[in-house]
Design goal:
Blueprint lengths: L1 H39 L7 E3 L2 H4 L4 H8 L7 E11 L2 E5 H7 E10 L5 E7 L15 E5 L3 E12 L2 E4 L2 E3 L2 E4 L2 E4 L15 H15 L6 H8 L7 E8 L4 E5 L4 H4 E8 L5 E6 L4 E3 L7 E9 L9 H5 L4 E3 L10
Antiparallel strand pairs: 1-2, 2-7, 3-6, 3-9, 4-5, 4-7, 8-11, 9-10, 12-17, 13-16, 13-18, 14-15, 14-17
């Protein structure tokens, strides 16, 4: 087994380096194009853009998401707004979000760097947050002058889903927009839209996660993990064909958190998606080499939330199929 892994390194590392450089080049091109398009046509960005199947059918849209947001969150309804130019502040009504989902999170990103500028959310058993300086029922971000993206994630959506108006410096910039609660129905078949360019673009992520013990942890985190809010903890690793994840959670964790897992092909397309619904849980057997990403999302207040061992209990064990030999987490 050690000899086989040694041979794998001989070709995986050079290919991973080439993949990394290719992805960085494409990302720079997309960001540059997006910046120029925004400067010429800012009005085209003044709409909510929900992530749904019909959007990905538009020319070049799938490729755009593969470059700008390749760690698909299959457990939430996602929409982005902007970028918008802000002089002082922006706000939105949270009642619309609360009426649309049991749990929601709003993140503000600098454009074009996509660095997190602010975030807030609504816990299931708390009153709606006022967050950063807003009136009750509102989110208000005070930020330095610049251009910003707004991202909204809705978990456990209700039958009627809407995104609220976005008011920037006192002017309504994005109008309210409604979508269907089953907008994520495209995910199970998304891996069928794979292309060789996607595989080459994201292969380095699989290599980095597989051999992460030899790499700086901060770099691997930056390349793999999406920009989440402070209430989300991530665990990740790789599975080979025939392997699956086994969870043995502290039962108290599920009283206050949701544990969600998505596996991604070496092209970074979602393959399997499931929520961990019991303390002892077995995930599906992987049909191919994948990266798994576990989101541990704080949903409710509880006395034990500050206990790090509680969160750590969500870290799974990798189990091999009997015919493939031993596996390690």
């Amino acid at each position: 087994m050690t000899l086989i892994r040694g041979f794998a390194l001989i070709w995986q590392i050079p290919l991973g380096i080439a993949s990394f450089l290719y992805f960085r080049l494409l990302r720079a091109v997309f960001v540059s194009f997006g910046r120029r398009h925004f400067r010429k046509h800012p009005e085209a960005f003044r709409v909510w853009k929900p992530l749904q199947g019909k959007v990905l059918d538009e020319p070049q849209m799938l490729g755009r998401y593969m470059v700008t947001g390749p760690r698909w969150n299959t457990h939430a309804l996602i929409a982005t707004g902007g970028p918008v130019t802000v002089r002082e502040h922006l706000h939105m009504n949270t009642d619309t979000l609360t009426q649309s989902a049991k749990y929601w999170a709003v993140c503000l990103y600098e454009f074009p760097s996509f660095n997190l500028a602010g975030a807030t959310n609504k816990l299931l058993e708390l009153k709606p947050e006022t967050s950063v300086g807003g009136m009750p029922g509102q989110i208000e971000f005070h930020v330095p002058p610049g251009d910003y993206y707004v991202g909204v994630r809705l978990y456990d959506p209700k039958p009627t889903v809407s995104y609220p108006e976005l008011v920037v410096d006192g002017e309504t910039t994005l109008l309210s927009s409604a979508i269907t609660h089953d907008a994520n129905s495209f995910y199970p078949d998304l891996h069928l839209r794979d292309r060789p360019s996607f595989r080459f673009m994201h292969y380095y992520v699989y290599v980095a996660v597989k051999w992460r013990r030899f790499l700086p942890r901060a770099w691997v985190d930056d390349e793999l993990l999406p920009v989440g809010d402070a209430h989300t903890t991530f665990f990740y690793g790789t599975l080979e064909a025939g392997e699956h994840l086994n969870f043995e959670l502290d039962p108290a964790l599920l009283d206050s958190h949701g544990v969600f897992c998505t596996t991604y092909t070496r092209s970074s397309l979602p393959r399997d998606s499931f929520s961990v619904s019991s303390a002892n849980f077995t995930g599906p057997e992987s049909s191919e080499p994948v990266v798994y990403l576990i989101r541990v999302l704080k949903l409710r207040e509880a006395d034990a939330l500050e206990n790090p061992d509680l969160i750590e209990s969500a870290k799974p064990t990798v189990v091999a199929h009997p015919s493939t030999g031993p596996a390690v987490a």
